[in-house]
C-alpha cells in the first residue's frame, strides 16, 4: 500500500514539475476562451492512455516495459527504447535548464546559471544512482514538503483574483483538438514511468485515478491563477505567467515580501525528483537493452545532459527545443502504451487459443 | 605433590599476579582449587566446597555434586579459569571439575538510566552484565516465543553477544542474514561502532544501523515491533537493529499519555528536527544572500541588529555553532560539579559578552539558542548528535546559494536519509513487516 502511495506521489510531482513552467503558456496559446475545455480534454486523453497502458501492462504480471519489449524481440527494444532514452536525456537537460532559469530569476539574479545547473544535476544524478527505492521514499517526503507550498500559493494568490478576467465560455466545436500543440501538452505529463516500476508492485487503476484527479485539479489551478489575476490579454505576453502572478501578490500581514520565493522552493523539490526519475529510467532502459551497469549509463548520460543544458544559449531557443523534445515525448506517450496493449492483447489471445487446443 | 595437569596450568598462568592454586584436604585426599583471586571470592568458595564435601562421602561424589562440567580436558579448564570459574583438580589429576564459584562482586546493581530520562515509565536501566540485562527482558516479556541466541565474537578476546527476537514476528530471512553475519565476525568488537560496521558499510555515515537504548521497556517495544535486540557484555545498552528514522521521533513512553498529547510530543520533535537542520542556514541565507525576501520593516530590523558587526553572517554563524557544540561536548566530559559553572560561563557570560562586543547579533544568539534546545528534543543521544552534524553541510550550501541552498541542502538530506538501508530495510520505513505478512 505504501508503495502505491509513493508511486502516486511521484506521478503528481512529475506532472507538477512540468506543469508549472511551460504548461500555462501552451494553454494560453491554444485558446482564448474556455481554457478548462483544453485541460479537461487533455487530461481525459491522458487518462485513456493510462488506462490502455495499465491494461497492456497487466497482461504481463511482474514485468516492466523493457522486459515486454525484449520479449517482442531485441530489435523491438532497440528500435522503440533507444530513441526514447535519447529523448529522455534531452527532456531532462532542458527541463533542468528551464527550471534553473526560473529559479535564478526568483532567488539569485547575480549567480551564473551553470553553478545552479551543476548543483541540481549533481543531486538528481545522486538520487538516480541510489535507485528506485530511494526515489520513491524521498518522493513521499518531498511531496509532504511541496504540497503545503502549493496550497499556500493557491490560497495566497486568491487575494488578487478578479473574477471578471475570465469568462467561463463554451468553445464548440473544440478546434484545438486538431492542433499539434495540444498533443505537445501530453509531453509534459510523463506517466510512462509507471511501466518501469510495474515489475515490483501491481498497480491498480483506481488508485492512479485518484492521483489523476489531483493532477487535473492542480492543472486547472496552474492555468487559472494567472488568468484570474491578469486576464487572457496580458497573460499571453508574459514569459512565466505563474511566476509573475506570484510576484504580484502582496499580503500585508505576511512577513515575507515575495510569494515567489515559496514558488521557487517548490520548484527545486519538483525538478530534483523529476530529473532523478528521468535519469533512472534512462539507466534502466540502457542496462536491460545493452547489458551494462546502470550506474555507468546514468553517469555518462547525465554528463551528456549537463553539456546539452550548458550549451543552449538563450531562453527563446530553450523553449523551442523543449517544445520539440516534448513533441517527441508525446509521440512515445501514444506509441508505447498502444504497442504494449496490442502486443499484450495479441500474445495473450494466442496463449488462450493455445490452451483451448 | 602436584600432578602434571596442575603444573601445566600453573606454568600457563605463571605471570599472573592474581592467580592462585590452593590445596584443600577433603576426606583425606588433597584437591587443588585453581582460579583468579580478582574474579573468585576464594574464602566463600572454599567454604562452599567444604560444605558440599561434608555431605558427600567420597571425592568422586563431591565432584559430581559440584557441577555438570566434570572431567574436561586441560584446554577447557584454562578457558574456565579465564571466564572466572573455579577449577578443582583431584590429587592424582584424574578428576576435575569447572565450578561456578561465589564470584567477587564486580557489577553495579540495577540503577536509573544515565542518558535517557523516561517520563511516566519504569526507571530501571540496563547494566553491564549481559545476563542481568537479558533477565530484565525475560522478566518483563514472559513468552515462549522470545528467542535468545548466544555468540562469542572477536579475535583476541571472545566477547559475549546475545541476539533476542520474537519468533514468528521478526522476518526469518532477516534473522538468517544477521545470524550468518555474526558467525562470520573475525575482528574484535570493542565498541558499538565495530558491531555497526558488521551490518554494512557505513563508515562515513553518521547514521548507525543500531539504536542504543538503556531502557528495558523500549527494548521490549522494539522486539514487539519485529526488530532484533542485541546485548554485548559490558555494554549497558540494548542495541536495537535496525535503527529507523521513526525511533528518533517516537518513544513508547509517549503512549502513556492520551493520544492527542503523544501526537503533540511527536509533532514537536519533528519541528525540533527540522529547526536544527535549517535554522542556522536560514539565518545566513536571509541575512546575507536573500535579504529582499523580507518585508521592508523586517529587513530593516534584521539589518539593524547586525549593525557594526565586522564578521560576515556565515563566519558569525559558524563560529557560534561550533562554539555551542564545543560547550555541549565539554559539559558531557566535565565532572558534574564543574558542569553548571561551564554552562553559566558559556551561556550567559560568553553570549552576553559576544553580543556586547558586537561580534554576533542578538538575532543570531536567539537562533543558536533555539537550535540547541531543538536538537535535544529528539530521542537518543546519538540521534541528537547526528542531526547536529547534518546542519553543517546545509549551512555551507546556504552561504553559497542563499535560500536555494537551504532548500537544496534540506532536500539532499532527505534523499540521503532515504537512501540508507540495513539489509534491505529502509531507514525511512515506518515499521518492519511481520513474518509472513504480504507485501
TrEMBL record, chain A:
InterPro entries, sorted: Spore_GerAB
Q: Where does the source fall among the domains of life?
A: Bacteria
Q: How would you describe this protein's topology in the membrane?
A: Multi-pass membrane protein
Q: One Gene Ontology cellular component annotation?
A: membrane
Pfam families per the UniProt record, alphabetical: Spore_permease
Where does the protein end up? Membrane
List the transmembrane segments: 7-28, 34-54, 75-92, 112-129, 136-156, 176-197, 209-230, 260-282, 294-312, 324-346
Q: Which UniProt keywords apply?
A: Germination, Membrane, Transmembrane, Transmembrane helix, Transport
Which family is annotated? Belongs to the amino acid-polyamine-organocation (APC) superfamily. Spore germination protein (SGP) (TC 2.A.3.9) family.
Q: State the protein's name.
A: Uncharacterized protein
Organism whose genome encodes this protein:
Peribacillus muralis
TrEMBL record, chain B:
Q: Which GO terms describe its biological process?
A: spore germination
**Keyword flag Cell membrane:** no
**Keywords linked to the UniProt accession:** Membrane, Transmembrane, Transmembrane helix
Domain of life assignment: Bacteria
Which Pfam families does the record cross-reference, listed alphabetically?
GerA (PF03323)
**Sequence intervals crossing the membrane:** 267-289, 309-331, 338-355, 361-380, 392-418
Q: Which GO terms describe its cellular component?
A: plasma membrane
Q: Tell me if Nucleus is a UniProt keyword of this record.
A: no
Q: Subcellular localization, per the record? A: Cell membrane; Membrane
Membrane topology term reads:
Multi-pass membrane protein
The record's similarity note reads: Belongs to the GerABKA family.
- What protein name is recorded for this chain? Uncharacterized protein
Organism encoding this protein: Peribacillus muralis
Q: What is the lineage of its organism?
A: Bacteria, Bacillati, Bacillota, Bacilli, Bacillales
Amino acid at each position: 500500500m505504501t508503495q502505491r502511495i509513493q508511486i502516486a506521489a511521484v506521478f503528481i510531482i512529475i506532472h507538477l514539475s512540468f506543469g508549472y513552467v511551460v504548461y500555462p503558456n501552451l494553454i494560453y496559446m491554444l485558446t482564448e476562451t474556455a481554457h478548462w475545455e483544453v485541460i479537461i480534454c487533455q487530461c481525459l486523453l491522458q487518462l485513456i492512455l493510462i488506462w490502455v497502458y495499465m491494461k497492456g501492462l497487466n497482461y504481463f504480471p511482474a514485468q516492466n516495459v523493457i522486459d515486454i519489449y525484449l520479449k517482442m524481440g531485441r530489435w523491438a527494444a532497440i528500435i522503440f527504447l533507444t530513441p526514447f532514452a535519447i529523448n529522455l536525456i534531452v527532456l531532462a537537460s532542458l527541463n533542468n535548464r528551464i527550471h534553473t532559469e526560473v529559479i535564478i530569476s526568483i532567488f539569485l539574479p547575480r549567480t551564473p546559471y551553470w553553478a545552479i545547473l551543476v548543483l541540481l544535476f549533481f543531486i538528481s544524478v545522486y538520487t538516480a544512482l541510489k535507485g528506485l527505492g530511494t526515489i520513491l521514499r524521498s518522493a513521499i517526503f518531498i511531496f509532504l514538503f511541496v504540497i503545503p507550498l502549493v496550497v499556500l500559493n493557491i490560497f495566497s494568490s486568491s487575494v488578487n483574483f478578479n473574477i471578471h478576467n475570465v469568462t467561463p465560455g463554451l468553445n464548440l466545436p473544440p478546434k484545438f483538438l486538431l492542433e499539434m500543440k495540444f498533443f505537445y501538452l501530453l509531453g509534459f505529463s510523463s506517466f510512462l514511468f509507471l511501466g518501469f516500476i510495474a515489475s515490483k508492485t501491481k498497480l491498480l487503476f483506481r488508485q492512479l485515478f485518484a492521483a489523476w484527479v489531483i493532477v487535473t485539479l492542480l492543472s486547472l489551478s496552474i492555468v487559472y491563477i494567472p488568468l484570474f489575476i491578469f486576464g487572457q490579454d496580458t497573460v499571453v505576453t508574459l514569459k512565466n505567467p505563474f511566476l509573475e502572478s506570484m510576484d504580484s501578490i502582496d499580503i500585508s500581514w505576511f512577513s515575507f515580501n515575495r510569494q515567489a520565493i515559496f514558488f521557487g522552493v517548490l520548484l527545486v523539490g519538483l525538478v530534483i525528483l523529476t530529473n532523478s526519475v528521468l535519469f533512472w529510467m534512462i539507466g534502466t532502459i540502457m542496462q536491460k537493452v545493452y547489458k551494462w551497469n546502470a550506474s555507468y549509463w546514468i553517469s555518462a548520460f547525465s554528463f551528456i545532459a549537463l553539456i546539452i543544458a550548458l550549451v543552449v544559449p538563450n531562453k527563446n531557443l530553450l523553449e523551442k527545443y523543449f517544445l520539440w523534445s516534448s513533441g517527441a515525448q508525446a509521440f512515445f506517450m501514444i506509441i508505447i502504451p498502444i504497442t504494449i496493449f496490442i502486443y499484450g492483447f495479441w500474445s495473450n489471445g494466442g496463449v488462450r487459443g493455445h490452451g483451448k487446443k | 605433590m602436584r600432578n602434571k595437569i596442575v603444573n601445566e596450568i600453573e606454568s600457563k598462568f605463571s605471570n599472573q599476579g592474581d592467580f592462585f592454586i590452593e590445596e584443600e584436604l577433603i576426606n583425606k585426599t588433597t584437591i587443588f582449587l585453581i582460579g583468579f583471586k580478582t574474579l573468585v571470592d576464594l574464602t566463600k568458595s572454599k567454604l562452599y566446597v567444604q560444605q558440599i564435601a561434608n555431605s558427600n562421602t567420597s571425592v568422586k561424589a563431591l565432584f559430581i555434586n559440584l557441577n555438570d562440567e566434570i572431567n574436561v580436558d586441560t584446554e577447557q579448564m584454562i578457558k574456565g579459569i579465564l571466564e572466572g570459574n573455579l577449577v578443582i583438580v583431584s590429587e592424582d589429576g584424574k578428576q576435575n571439575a569447572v565450578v561456578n564459584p561465589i564470584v567477587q562482586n564486580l557489577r553495579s546493581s540495577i540503577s536509573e538510566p544515565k542518558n535517557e530520562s523516561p517520563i511516566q515509565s519504569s526507571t530501571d536501566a540496563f547494566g553491564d552484565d549481559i545476563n542481568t540485562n537479558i533477565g530484565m527482558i525475560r522478566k518483563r516479556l514472559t513468552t515462549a516465543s522470545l528467542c535468545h541466541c548466544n555468540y562469542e565474537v572477536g579475535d583476541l578476546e571472545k566477547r559475549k553477544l546475545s541476539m533476542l527476537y520474537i519468533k514468528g514476528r521478526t522476518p526469518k530471512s532477516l534473522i538468517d542474514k544477521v545470524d550468518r553475519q555474526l558467525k562470520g565476525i573475525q575482528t574484535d568488537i570493542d565498541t558499538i561502532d565495530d558491531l555497526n560496521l558488521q551490518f554494512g558499510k557505513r563508515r562515513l555515515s553518521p547514521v548507525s544501523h543500531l539504536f542504543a537504548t538503556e531502557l528495558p521497556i523500549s527494548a521490549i517495544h522494539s522486539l514487539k515491533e519485529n526488530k532484533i535486540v542485541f546485548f554485548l557484555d559490558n555494554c549497558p545498552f540494548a542495541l536495537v537493529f535496525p535503527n529507523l528514522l521513526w525511533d528518533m521521533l517516537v518513544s513508547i513512553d509517549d503512549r502513556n499519555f492520551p493520544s492527542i498529547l503523544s501526537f503533540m510530543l511527536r509533532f514537536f520533535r519533528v519541528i525540533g528536527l527540522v529547526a536544527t537542520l535549517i535554522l542556522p542556514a536560514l539565518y545566513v541565507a536571509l541575512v546575507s544572500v536573500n535579504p529582499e525576501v523580507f518585508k521592508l520593516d523586517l529587513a530593516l530590523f534584521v539589518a539593524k541588529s547586525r549593525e557594526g558587526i565586522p564578521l560576515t553572517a556565515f563566519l558569525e554563524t559558524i563560529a557560534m555553532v561550533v562554539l555551542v557544540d564545543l560547550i555541549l561536548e565539554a559539559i558531557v566530559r566535565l565532572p558534574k560539579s564543574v558542569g553548571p559553572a561551564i554552562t553559566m560561563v558559556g551561556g550567559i557570560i560568553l553570549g552576553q559578552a559576544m553580543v556586547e562586543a558586537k561580534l554576533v547579533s542578538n538575532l543570531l544568539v536567539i537562533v543558536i539558542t533555539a537550535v540547541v534546545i531543538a536538537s535535544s528534543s529528539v530521542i537518543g543521544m546519538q540521534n541528537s548528535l547526528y542531526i547536529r552534524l547534518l546542519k553543517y553541510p546545509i549551512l555551507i550550501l546556504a552561504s553559497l546559494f542563499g535560500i536555494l541552498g537551504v532548500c537544496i541542502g534540506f532536500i539532499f538530506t532527505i534523499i540521503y536519509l532515504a537512501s540508507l538501508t540495513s539489509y534491505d530495510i529502509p531507514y525511512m520505513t515506518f515499521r518492519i513487516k511481520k513474518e509472513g505478512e504480504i507485501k
